[in-house]
UniProtKB/TrEMBL annotation, chain A:
Record text on subunit structure and interactions: Part of the signal recognition particle protein translocation system, which is composed of SRP and FtsY.
Nucleotide-binding as UniProt keyword: yes
Name of the featured protein: Signal recognition particle receptor FtsY
Lineage of the species this protein comes from: Bacteria, Bacillati, Bacillota, Clostridia, Eubacteriales
Catalytic activity line of the entry: GTP + H2O = GDP + phosphate + H(+)
Native source organism of the sequence: Desulfotomaculum copahuensis
Length: 309, 463
């Protein structure tokens, strides 16, 4: 199955949430009127796009409809697709390079799937011929180190670890030294999940970044914020505060394989301009894909097939 | 004092509503146009809190019907009146406090936790064991997540920390068999409460949902609790509906409420499934599980903070005699650094500063949070060290602490002269504010309002 099909399959549920809704709306209307706009706005809000973004999108849609002289309700879908595409940007944003080793720090709130994402990301880098090293920087949560080690065993990648309760910055320091002496191309650092509003924990994260930067100028080259697709408007606050603390360079959107709609990334991209770099679309180790904005929107708005899952 | 704090409830949504209604002052009755305007703000607040769209729509409709044509009570402004209706309706929708677990007359009582990946089931299982142990139960934790790497180990570590036994059969047995064996084990070892942790799963994954149904059929839990992340968006209703229709839920545990998520999911789930939220996870420590208070959650969803919890905490922590003594001192302007230190210690008893801030209305909003975001409990440790490095003479005469004394205090407390200066400055500000308070106390009785900056701003000496 090609990447596009795989993506489409996993996004089918998302599409059912948003696009089918929009299509039903659109086909139920004979002309473009205020009711239709209002219903479209509601559909966007229900996809977690957020009220402000939804209102703005609809305002843009109205403007475009007027400017282009669109009269058929059916044309609204593709127009809306275009507008969302504009916000997300069409291109894929690759991982930042640097080093060696290129240092990737993975951050996020509790339970979004950081450790799982790291396992998948390690496999992804490995499949591209890179030598990868992992750092067990979540020294707080019970058994988090064991969890990462199991991923290490699955991928055959060494995990640098300290004891539970150790200073995560010290783990990062050791891992960086190890990565250098072993000639690793990529070092991926796990961190403990933390709520973005806890300033002391955010300070801890800053320290990890500082230690890395001092040892290897430019590091961390990539700070990936892992976001759970089921998250609502709080995701924007997460992106803002993690961004302030660590300079987030990209987002990984996980758990897109449920009915979660992930619409909040539209609001995030619009407000903060942090690109989505990967999406997690399943539980197996290969289920992490580079995010293609164009494909994402296309799959989201695909009209041809209506397969049910 | 406490009355004053309650007045501050009006912030966030409330501020906006007040604004909307300012021009209506003097009107005796709410018209449809007035209410429509207000409902727009209510809608925005609820959606921003991730309450499900359909739920919002119905809710707004109901509030509107109730509000239009109502006589405005003498004691309230139109804005306050609408807020009151909104709050009452929200609280009604959320139901009363129901932080009770169905206890089986024939032990053991079986509790099963279910939910999506990463909702916080394993942590909640441990917290629940800890909470219920305090009520005299003898819990047994059951490691039923055989899928996620190291999930069993996680529960075992948590069990060890709590000194609660954990039943595990490794990750090669089916969760159904594990649950069955765990119940037998509990009976054999005299455990009267069995808490079964299960793997996270998608509500649309039939096979995995079948597994939960099979566990239910095998052991007949007395209580099936859905664990839900407070940050969940619109999809919360689908999740709750799916788990409820398949398993028949008895309640919800709402986790990660210690962040800035407003937790609209709680409202959505209650509205859709009728299941009450029974407990709330409010921190990383194993005692951070609280009974859920629907009325306070209503305020939080509306952006009005959790004043009542704060008041309760303050009442529980502050010694009434001490407060009386302090008041006397303030009146006589005898407030010293010793009192300042005592006061700081009282504030610390309330809990981590971040948690306290979260409960104060108005601070939930991002801009103000940012100002206060840097407050660290550690700063209080420095303040304490500095004051304790002073002689009793100095503590009673802070204004006579000269440069060389400041240097000595800094050395003694392991801080810098700047830090000593800032503590002395904070003290002066507190003293000044205390005086304002006592003066305000008099005017409050005549209906005066607490100044808006009471709890805000980094210069606030209370923090």
């Amino acid at each position: 199955m090609g990447i596009f099909d795989r993506l489409k399959q996993s996004l089918t549920r998302t599409r059912q949430g948003l696009v089918e809704k929009i299509e039903t709306l659109v086909s139920g209307h004979k002309s473009i009127d205020d009711d239709l706009y209002e219903e479209l706005e509601e559909a966007l809000i229900q996809a977690d796009v957020g009220m402000d973004t939804a209102v703005d999108l609809i305002a843009d849609l109205r403007r475009e409809v007027k400017a282009r002289g669109v009269r058929e309700p059916e044309q609204l879908t593709s127009l809306l697709q275009e507008l969302i595409g504009d916000i997300l940007g069409q291109e894929t944003v690759p991982l930042n390079t640097g080093g060696p080793p290129a240092v990737i720090m993975v951050v996020g709130v509790n339970g979004v799937g950081k450790t799982t994402t790291i396992g998948k990301l390690a496999r992804y880098c490995q499949s591209r011929g890179q030598r990868v090293l992992l750092a067990a920087g979540d020294t707080f949560r019970a058994a988090a180190i064991d969890q990462l080690e199991i991923w290490g065993q699955r991928t055959g990648i060494t995990v640098i670890k300290h004891r539970e309760g150790a200073d995560p910055a010290a783990v990062a320091y050791d891992a960086l030294q190890a990565a250098r002496s072993r000639g690793a191309d990529v070092l991926i650092i796990d961190t403990a999940g933390r709520l973005h509003t806890k300033s002391n924990l955010m300070e801890e994260l800053k320290k990890v970044g500082r230690v890395l930067g001092r040892e290897l100028p430019g590091a961390p080259h990539e700070v990936l914020l892992v976001l759970d697709a089921t998250t609502g408007q709080n995701a924007i606050s997460q992106a803002k505060l993690f961004g302030q603390a660590t300079g987030v360079t990209g987002i990984v959107l996980t758990k897109l394989d449920g009915t979660a709609r992930g619409g909040v990334i539209i609001g995030i991209r619009r407000e903060l301009d942090i690109p989505v770099k990967f999406i997690g679309i399943g539980e197996s180790v290969d289920d992490l894909r580079p995010f293609h904005a164009g494909e994402f929107v296309a799959a989201l708005f695909d009209r041809r097939d209506k397969e049910t899952v | 004092m406490i009355k004053g704090v309650k007045q501050m409830v009006f912030s966030g949504l409330a501020e906006k509503l007040q604004e909307t209604f300012r021009r209506l002052k003097g009107k005796g009755r709410l018209t449809e146009a007035d209410v429509d305007e207000a409902m727009k703000e209510v809608k925005r607040a609820l959606l921003g809190a991730d309450v499900n769209f359909q739920v919002v729509k119905k809710f707004v409709q109901r509030v509107k019907e109730r509000a239009i044509g109502q006589d405005i009570l003498d004691s309230l402004t139109p804005g306050q009146q609408v807020i009151k209706i909104v709050r009452d309706e929200l609280a009604a929708l959320m139901g009363g406090t129901q932080s009770k677990i169905n206890v089986s007359p024939k032990p053991p009582t079986l509790v099963m936790l279910v939910g999506l990946h990463g909702a916080g089931k394993t942590t909640s299982a441990a917290k629940l064991a800890n909470t219920l142990r305090k009520t005299g139960r003898r819990p047994l934790l059951v490691a039923g997540d055989v899928y996620r790497p190291a999930a069993i180990k996680q529960l075992q570590v948590l069990g060890q920390q709590l000194d609660v036994p954990v039943f595990s059969m490794g990750d090669r047995q089916s969760p159904v068999d594990i649950a069955r064996a765990a119940v037998e084990h509990a009976v054999g070892t005299g455990r009267d409460l069995v808490i079964i942790d299960t793997a996270g799963r998608l509500q649309i994954d039939q096979e995995m949902m079948d597994e939960l149904a099979a566990i239910k059929a095998a052991v007949h839990p007395h209580e099936i609790l859905l664990v839900v992340d407070a940050m969940t968006g619109q999809v919360a209703v689908n999740v709750a509906e799916a788990f409820n229709s398949r398993l028949g839920l008895d309640g919800v545990i709402l986790t990660k409420l210690d962040g800035d998520a407003r937790g609209g999911a709680a409202l959505s789930m209650k509205a859709v499934t009728g299941c009450p939220v029974k407990f709330a996870g409010v921190g990383e420590k194993l005692d951070a599980l609280e009974p859920f208070h629907p009325d306070r959650m209503a305020d939080r969803i509306l952006g009005m903070g959790d004043v009542l919890t704060l008041i309760e905490k303050a009442q529980a922590s502050f010694d009434a005699d001490q407060v009386a003594k302090l008041n006397q001192k303030i009146k006589n302007v005898e407030f010293t650094l010793d009192d300042f230190l005592e006061q700081l210690q009282e504030v610390r008893k309330l809990g981590p500063i971040q948690q306290i801030i979260g409960m104060i209305p108005g601070l939930g909003s991002m801009k103000k949070m940012k100002e206060l975001g840097d407050i660290d409990d550690k700063e209080l440790v420095y303040v304490e060290a500095i004051i304790k490095s002073m002689t009793p003479w100095e503590r009673n005469r802070p204004h006579e602490i000269n440069g060389s004394r400041r240097r000595r205090i800094a050395r003694g407390s392991g801080t810098s002269v700047q830090q000593v200066n800032s503590v002395l400055k904070q003290f002066e500000q507190t003293k000044k504010m205390m005086r304002q308070f006592s003066e305000m106390g008099k005017s409050m009785k005549k209906g005066g309002r607490v100044p808006g900056n009471l709890f805000t701003g980094k210069g606030n000496p209370l923090f």
